[in-house]
Amino acid sequence: MTRMSLTGTRLLVRRALRADRWFWLVWVLVLWSFLPATASAYRAIISDDAAGREVAVGLASNPTMRAILGPPYDLLQVGGFVMWRVGGFVATCAAIMAALGVLRATRAEEEAGRTELLRSGAIGRHASLAAALLTATGACLLLGLLIAGSMTGLGTPLTGSLAMGLAIAATGVVFAGVGAVAAQLTSSARTARGMAMGAVGAAYLLRALADGSSEGSGLRRLGWLSPVEWAPYVRPYAGERWWVLIVPLVVSAGLVALAITLESRRDFGAGLRATKPGPAGALAGLRSAGALAWRLDRGSVLWSVLGFGIFSLVIGTLSNVFDQVAEDRTLAERFRRMGGGAKLLSDAFYVAMLGILIVLIALVGLSLLDRLRREEDSGRAELVLSTATSRTALLRAYAVPALLVPVALVVVSAVLLAVPQAVRDGDPGALARLAGAGLVQSPGVLLIVALAVAVHGLAPRLRWLPWAVTAWSVVVNWIGGVLGFPQRLLDATPFGYLPRLPADAMSWTPVVVECLVAAVLLAAGWWGYARRDIT
Question: What keywords would UniProt list here (predicted)?
């Protein structure tokens, strides 16, 4: 790579910061806030007495908790507990932030034609990629600095705070490299995002499998293959292993070098994976807006089914450890609290897991509907509307899959979550029971997607609103109970009032009410979309 190929990098960094400043600022501040907030709630969870120490030992030895949250090293220190409870989660989210940020500044800009306009001036071949990587690296380092500073300010040791900040930042930098490589493989920003998010999901699943396995098992070594596991392996506040940071640095350098090499070998505007030309005439099944939408989204749907299915099946195998949990009354009580107060620990486990999965599945629905916005921005929706296709038909083509696919995903995930227990106990009825529990929670997903439809039809500039609602639901489901949120805040999500079977008794009122509200929002969105300008 010559110096000429990097000409204009500084200018493009400034442009990236100007164009995506809110993207980076919101991500960094939200992720940073998790750690000091959790630290402030430490004593409410681990008391400074024999009972608190007993709880810490029980949490550290429980394979289910390890699989969900990662390896614990020293839960009797504030910093060690924070790293275990939210450190791995923040590292995984930092990976998502960095990968998406790089793709926004590279493949998405190239697909939109703005990179071609910039490169018509004195801009080097690799300047856009270098600027995106520098911006993402800077955001990750800023996140690490905020984490280290705030944890030190809360009285935790400086060395542990620095190790935590650097470990989380390094995880983000690795996936900035992953995003850079994905940007070279395909000409579609959507496909590149799918590749990057698939890599994050695979890394998290590998980490859960390694941490949930028994001590001394060969599966434990698989953790070294997961980049989101390297942050906990640095062991902040528990005898820091600084040498582990070399691993993400070396991998990041290798990924960046690979991305630059691939960019040198591909044509501008194309990916290394060539796009095959379609047939001259459309098949009978492709002569409608709905068929077109399904053709565009089928890859994302299939990968979502595969990803959530594998994750649910693997996590479901952890249901065989509850006899160990039941021996510790304090730990069992805390686990019941996570599971909505269910009497049986297995029921508490399923309630807790569905609470996490249902929010992530809502993101799939929002992503499917967001395809319509991207089609409008690119001008392709206007071409479709220039035919005999009506506004209503076009919106229906994208809204119906966005509503139905997440519900199907909920049912599939719930059933696969129960498969290990059903096989072990010879109880096929467990599959139907958990499928019903998932369906009862699905109105929350429908409400989020319906809100997105209403926003798209009535006020497109507020498209961030349904994403913000979903993000708030993630925060509540993941750490709301740990931080001691008031009940009114815990209920302030689309899922807060829905019955959490089998922990709660079935109540049809919130289910019917949320479905009716979703129907009203859908009608409002359809009405607005039929009347607003397509811009």
Answer: Membrane, Transmembrane, Transmembrane helix
Structure token digits, residue 166 = 């650097």
Burial class, 494, CB count within 10 angstroms (exposed 0-12 / middle 13-18 / buried 19+): buried
Q: What is the DSSP letter of 505?
A: P
Determine the residue type at 534: I
Residues of the chain below pLDDT 50? 326
Residues 514, 499 contacting (CB under 8 angstroms)? no
Residue where the block lists tokens 């500044």: 105
Q: What is the pLDDT of residue 326?
A: 47
Query: pLDDT per residue over 22-44, tens digit each?
Result: 899 999 998 998 888 888 777 66
Look at residue 276 in the predicted model and tell me its pLDDT.
Answer: 64
Among the listed residues 143, 166, 318, 167, the one whose alpha carbon sits nearest the alpha carbon of residue 229: 167
Sign of the torsion angle spanned by Cα atoms 282, 285, 291, 295 = negative
Question: Are the C-beta atoms of 118 and 256 separated by less than 8 Å?
Answer: no
Q: Residue 277: is the preceding peptide bond cis (ω within 30°)? A: no
Backbone angles phi, psi at 121, to 5 degrees: -95, -155
Task: Please check whether residue 449 is in contact with residue 401, taking contact to mean a CB–CB distance below 8 angstroms.
Answer: no
Q: Could you report the per-residue pLDDT of 128-145, keeping only the tens digit for each?
A: 888 999 999 999 999 999
- Please list the alpha-helical segments (H only) found in 186-245: 189-212, 230-233
Q: What pLDDT sits at residue 309?
A: 85
- CA torsion 75→80→86→92, rounded to 10°? -130
Burial of 133 (0-12, 13-18, 19+ CB in 10 A): buried
The answer to pTM > 0.70 is: yes
- Angle between helix axes 246-265 and 127-153 (nearest 10 degrees) is 160
The confidence score (pLDDT) of residue 320 equals 62
Cβ 222 vs Cβ 210: under 8 Å: yes
Backbone angles phi, psi at 484, to 5 degrees: 70, 40
Q: Which among 515, 510, 514, 512 has a CA at the least distance from the CA of 497?
A: 510
Q: What are phi and psi of 120, to 5 degrees?
A: -75, -15
Structure tokens at 11: 């200018």
Compute the distance between CA of residue 47 and CA of residue 451 in angstroms, rounded to an integer.
42
